[in-house]
Specification:
Number of strands: 13
Largest sheet: 11 strands, antiparallel
Shape: globular
Distance between the termini: 44 Å
Order of helices and strands: HHEEEEHEEHHHHEEEEHHEEE
Number of helices: 9
């Protein structure tokens, strides 16, 4: 079951490559290429929001805003040297969930470590990321924040109480993986570069197979503001996970938690019999200028099951 979900996430993230078109059809395609100049600088705002779905109600449970400056440090025939510098970190005070109000001390520490941190990277002449320059430094920052968060939320104490080796856990989580949290917005901005996309709409149904659940694909490429050279790429992939797979996953989960005997009870079987299909909806949007500068990108995952669910969205938006 986990392999099935991972497979579809992988397919979704690589979709721009699948949608690549022959650039010779200039009148029917848009190109995402980097026509940058040394010294160009733009400000971006990164919004991370999570919602909980309960019936017809959707309530925000966590919301943060990070600000950064993206600059072209150098331009050569081999590509561009870019710099992403974090300038601010804010918490949305309007969200009153326990998670959001967990610890202001944690958010203050994150802001202290994050603001001023610079990520340097190289992109090809087309705009594809080819090398991160200072991942050791970024990884150290990410580990400091991760370790501090574990200590202040008392998560380490909870894990110790059930027999987890915290020191071993910290060693197992490598700095590179932790740093990817902070490089993710950059990867979103440049994830469409180096390709051409055919204008128009694509709708496709992908039947279920032994290795993957059924899915419906909707993709639309269109000019948003032609006079400004601004076009948009929308991609939606709706994955339907059959109720039989859901039941299998739930049974495995209960067994992992040491509650295998409960799976044999009539109450558990009745509950499993009432379960329906699960839907996971992946959505991405990229609003790009024809010189390759991203205006806005969105990456969203929505999980819906039995009248409830959750939504996680990251939005990176040019503010200048």
């Amino acid at each position: 079951m986990r392999q099935t979900i991972i497979l579809f996430i992988t397919l979704f993230l690589t979709l721009p490559t699948v949608a690549q078109e022959d650039a010779t059809a200039a009148d029917s395609t848009v190109d995402v290429l980097a026509y940058f100049n040394k010294g160009e600088t733009y400000n971006y705002s990164v919004s991370d929001v999570q919602w909980k779905i309960n019936g017809t109600d959707t309530v925000a449970v966590a919301s943060t805003i990070t600000k950064a400056t993206l600059s072209v440090v150098d331009s050569t025939k081999k590509g561009y040297l870019m710099e992403w510098r974090y300038t601010d970190f804010q918490v949305d005070d309007s969200v009153k969930s326990p998670r959001q109000q967990l610890s202001q001390e944690i958010f203050a520490k994150m802001k202290e470590r994050l603001v001023g941190q610079t990520i340097r990277f190289q992109i090809t002449p087309e705009g594809e990321i080819k090398k991160w320059e200072n991942m050791k430094e970024v990884g150290k920052m990410a580990r400091d924040i991760f370790q501090f968060t574990m200590e202040k939320t008392h998560l380490s104490d909870s894990l110790k109480s059930v027999g987890f080796d915290i020191s071993g856990l910290l060693r197992a989580v490598d700095n590179k993986s932790l740093a990817e949290t902070y490089t993710a917005p950059i990867e979103m901005l440049f994830g469409y570069h180096g390709k051409s996309y055919k204008l128009g709409d694509i709708t496709e149904h992908i039947p279920a197979s032994d290795d993957s659940p059924a899915a419906d694909l909707n993709m639309s490429v269109y000019w948003l503001e032609p006079e400004k050279g601004l076009f948009c790429i929308d991609v939606e992939r709706i994955v339907t996970i059959d109720k039989s797979d859901v039941k299998q996953f739930m049974g495995a989960l209960f067994s992992t938690l040491g509650k295998g005997e409960e799976c044999q009870s009539d109450k558990f079987k009745d509950m499993m019999g009432e379960l329906g299909d699960m839907k996971v909806i992946f959505f991405s949007r990229a609003e790009m200028f024809d010189d390759g500068w991203p205006s806005m990108v969105i990456d969203q995952t929505k999980e819906v099951f039995e009248g409830g669910g959750k939504v996680k969205q990251t939005r990176v938006c040019m503010t200048q």
